[in-house]
Amino acid sequence: MKRSFVPFVTWNLFVSLICILPAQLLAQETGVLRGKVSGGEGFRPDEVIVQLLNEGNKQLVKMEYADAKGDFRFTGIREGKYQILIQHLSYNRYLSPAIAHTTVTDLGTIRLEAATRQLREANVVAQKPLVQQQYDKTVLNVAGSIGAAGSNALEVLEKAPGITVDQNDNIAMRGRQGVLVMVDGKQVPMSGQDLANYLRSLNAAQVDRIDLITNPSARYDAAGNAGIIDIRLKKGKNNGTNGTLGLSLAQGAYPKANPSFSINHKKGAFNYFASYNFSHRRDFNELNIHRKFFTGHGEETGGNDYDNLFKLKFNTHNARVGVDYQPGARTTIGLAANAIVSDGGIGSDSRAQSYDAAQAPTGRFNTFGDNDLHRRNYSVNANFRRLLDTAGRELTADLDYARFSNWEYQNYRTSYLDNHNAPLRPDFLLFGDLSGALDIYSLKLDYTHPVPALGMKLEGGIKSSWVRTDNDVRFYDRSNGGDVLDEGKSNRFIYKENINAAYLNGSGKWRKLSYQFGLRMEHTRANGRQVIHEETFDRDYVQLFPSGYVGYRFNPKHDLGVTLSRRINRPSYRQLNPFRVFLDPLTSSTGNPALNPEITASYELVYTFNEVYTAKAGYSRTTDNILTVLAPDEEPNSVLQTNRNLARYDYYHLTIGVPVTAIKWLNSNNTLVAYYGRYSGNLVNTDLNEGRVALNLNSSNTITLNPKTAMEVTANYQSRSWYGFLDVYSSFQMGMGIQRQFWERKGSVKLNVSDIFYTGRTKAFTKLTGYSEAFRQFRDSRVVTLTFNYRFGGQQQGPRRRAGGAEEEKRRAG
User: Per residue in 174-188, pLDDT tens?
Assistant: First the structure.
């Protein structure tokens, strides 16, 4: 394979830059506020947390840790009035009087007084709002949400502002698919039903927050042209042993259950954590289809009416274990492993009536399917973090390996009947053996370097990932009692991919101006091979991905910013897989190894009023837009579903966030997304030039009945919209729940009803040259759920764990 010279040179230049940068930047140090802390016998200075607060509003500016001698130091601090808050587990909290800081301020030695009793809390406590709007993302604080109790991660996402989940479990952000889902900053290489089953097995009680990142920085992978959903799990911060127990029992048309357990044990330099979730889920999917076929001149040639019923059953185990070790105050070494084991089955009953051109019935065929599915997903992560100094220089490293295996056995029996339900010919029996494996290796290094003289922070890093997927699919015709290989449906597909990336990112504040800019380079090499037909393809390309924002704070009430980014959405391994999957005698789906990645350039204007109300207006253009298309197949009156590249997609949006907190007993978060997407191009001999203004309205309301009892009412409305050739009709869902806390707020019980009016159904219509289809889909969306959660163990924060609750504030302080 031919190697590209450009990424090799760029890679070496970047590594050289990272190596020499630290020595060149900190030539001058200004804005220093320093001091020393002491205590009595047995006092350990390195267990001291020092926080710098604004004197006026008590907001956190920076947080640092004293060294082994008790010295602490804040750099890059502007002139102004501040206060120092010092905390130690065994000493009383110290809050200084107002400090008038100019250029260099030395506070001298501060002596702490030993505590006569253990403090219940040693933190500055502030209630986080459920939704926080920032220039580049929306933060959903799940840990502080009453409504999240008893829910799973997918249900929380469905309630999130601007997020929709369609009938096939595809997740869209602000009306756009192509969203990258991550957990703790690491991509989840699953999509559709597999991803949905994983998120359903993840209890929301174990989720800290969800970042809806619309403008990812260069630090993130360039994948995900519609944005990134990063689910951040809770991490143990307390001394001793603590954890949570949860149990959810639900009943819709079928029962569902989700017990969960998490535990964290912290002692000395070690922190151990583990969690386990089990999801038992039975579901149904009722799909009614009316199809018509036409000649090239638009004359109808016939059609089919389908009544499909799918019954689904999945048992999913999701386990996570790990340990963090801190050999010193500034070093953390971690190891974590995750396992997802899923077994399930899909039973299908498809009854089809065929018609001729005059709409007269010509016969029937009934297809009964029994699919046995097994998924085994394992991953391990080793990580290293080193704080190089108190100024904030930091080095982190991650090494990951993941293996995703699947086995699937399909049995289909099709009966052909005349108009009087008499057999026309012998039944057709088809057996499929679908197996595959996906291996992922990844190595990532990141370096952070503050530049106090300029009030900014520089970040740089490199990443390499290697992927190999091997799918072997065999279909056999068993109609005559034996196994006859169907070579038209059988194949083996091997795909290899290597991505090397490097990035540089800068962020900071200057007076009323805040900014972030970055550039990421990714070099992709890929090879695909179909074994049976010996067809191969090779790809080798380099892409640059700039990103950034500039914000200006006019005054405490008005804040304006502009963002930009360039992103890529590579086809999934399943989308590239060329195998045909049998659905019924006239319907099949296949991957497309000729798919190109889609590229999106996005621009957005962000306005914030009074730090509460937010409006975002943006535009993006996607080239080679990947669309799922239903189109006529080679056989008469048959349909093939596959993914194809459309020339262009232009997308405009206006997002308005209106929280309501003025009423003491009501906390309401409301988000309106108005968008217009226009698809342009030609696919399957059909010109596409369609667009429509669409609305998505999301409202989440918490009503406090008393200090321990609260209600939640949620609603989501999606207006009529276009997805490629598909005209999707409007939908509406509403849910309601009530929660009661007890046992000093360690326990809670919640009763919740989703989709109360059973309106969460999908209706759509599509028309191409030679073909049209209208369908309606119903799912088990109206569900009553009873949930119990219990939090056990001590609640006293351990000072040794550096990844604490102020990490986000430290990041913003720069």
Answer: 767 778 888 877 777
